[in-house]
């Protein structure tokens, strides 16, 4: 009985191996496999290690001041398009009872004097972007120039700029 069981298992194993390795079309000498996948163009951004900027100089000097750096990476090998919007419509707004405002302009790298009071600003195909599989980013400096006159109402003034990045 033991010999019969061993013979049956051996016959089953040989039959299974032969069935798995069977080639139905014997006319060809090669096999081809076609396959593809798509990686969509994309960009990623962060504000790096930037913290909220406190202590802006809001006097009559209208000094241009850095508010941070924008770090961008894209998988397209091209510069990114970035869009900038202001939570306060291009104004620093005070926390006082009047909600006093101070206008400002934005500098993006070498592009200066951008007025967000007219709405979103699109920096088309211009923001430097890192590339490659290691994810190294390129940094762009962001600065504002408050249009204060030194006689503005007392209060702490602030705004938030949101940057959306997209591939070209």
TrEMBL record:
Lineage: superkingdom: Bacteria
Keywords: Signal
Signal sequence interval, chain numbering: 1-21
Name of protein: Spore coat protein U domain-containing protein
Organism of provenance: Pseudoalteromonas luteoviolacea DSM 6061
């Amino acid at each position: 009985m033991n010999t019969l069981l061993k013979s049956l298992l051996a016959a089953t194993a040989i039959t299974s191996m032969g069935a798995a390795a069977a080639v139905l079309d014997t006319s060809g000498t090669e096999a081809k496999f076609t396959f593809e996948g798509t990686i969509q163009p994309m960009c990623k951004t962060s504000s790096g290690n930037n913290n909220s900027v406190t202590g802006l100089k809001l006097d009559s000097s209208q000094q241009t001041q850095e508010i941070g750096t924008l770090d961008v990476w894209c998988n397209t090998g091209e510069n990114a398009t970035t869009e900038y919007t202001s939570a306060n419509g291009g104004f620093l707004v005070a926390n006082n009872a009047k909600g006093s405002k101070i206008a400002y302009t934005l500098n993006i790298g070498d592009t200066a004097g951008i007025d967000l009071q007219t709405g979103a600003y699109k920096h088309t195909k211009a923001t430097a972007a890192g590339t490659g599989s290691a994810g190294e980013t390129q940094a762009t400096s962001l600065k504002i120039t408050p249009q204060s006159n030194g006689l503005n109402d007392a209060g702490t003034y602030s705004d938030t700029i949101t940057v959306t990045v997209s591939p070209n």
